[in-house]
Amino acid sequence: RRTHQLSHKEARARVARVAKRLSERFGADTRWDGDDLVVEHSGLTGKVSVRKNEIVVDGRVDAVGAGYRSS
User: 69 near 57, Cβ under 8 Å?
Assistant: First the structure.
């Protein structure tokens, strides 16, 4: 959770720029669901929610899908 003092439009635009970089650099699939950016990639699922005064990041890393190996 991070608070911000941006307009809703600017906060959403900044999250969209991050999403574009994630997609280009790592091949992550991103899509908007209202004011929530849904991010999916092998071993990772998450959501970035753009709120009036805060950005909320919620995610889950799947250890198996992320290439975790046990000895």
Answer: no
